[in-house]
Design a protein that fits this description.
mainly alpha; rod-shaped; 0% strand
């Protein structure tokens, strides 16, 4: 191999090496861009992770608050159910009292009817007694009037002596 061939081979090798170096530099630039994108994505992922941790913490706090609220609501519901049961028991007692009142009212109405009937009978008897008394008073008045006429007649006939 001659010196010219060797120089030519060296020049070719140098050209190939230069081309490979250019390609390597281009690949490095692409890798740097990819690395920059990866770094940005890693930063975004870290930020997202932080946000997720914060959201989970808030969620846990709200779940704790919800648990307290749930316990309070259950306590209030239990009190409401107890009150409803007591009200139902009170309603049963009220119904029993109402039935008893209805019975008493019916008994009072029957007693009132009997009293009115007795009153009507008494009034009828009283009216009959008054009519009888009026009749007897009338008879008595007639008898007194007749006697007065006899006394007047006897006084005119005999000078003041009354005849039997």
């Amino acid at each position: 191999m001659s010196a010219d061939e060797r120089i030519m081979r060296l020049e070719n090798a140098f050209a190939t090496l230069s081309e490979l170096a250019a390609r390597a530099e281009e690949a490095d630039r692409r890798h740097e861009k990819v690395d920059a994108k990866h770094d940005a994505r890693l930063n975004d992922l870290a930020n997202s992770n932080q946000l997720l941790v914060e959201l989970i913490r808030r969620h846990d706090e709200r779940m704790d608050e919800f648990g307290v609220s749930q316990t309070d609501s259950e306590r209030k519901l239990a009190a409401l159910f107890d009150a409803q049961i007591r009200a139902g028991e009170g309603m049963d007692e009220l119904r029993a009292l109402h039935v008893d009142s209805e019975r008493k009212i019916a008994a009072l109405a029957d007693a009132q009817i009997r009293a009115e009937e007795a009153h009507a009978r008494s009034m009828g008897e009283l009216r009959a007694a008054q009519a009888e008394a009026a009749r007897k008073i009338g008879e008595l008045a007639d008898a007194v009037a007749r006697m007065a006429e006899r006394v007047d007649a006897a006084g005119r006939d005999g000078g003041g002596q009354a005849a039997d």
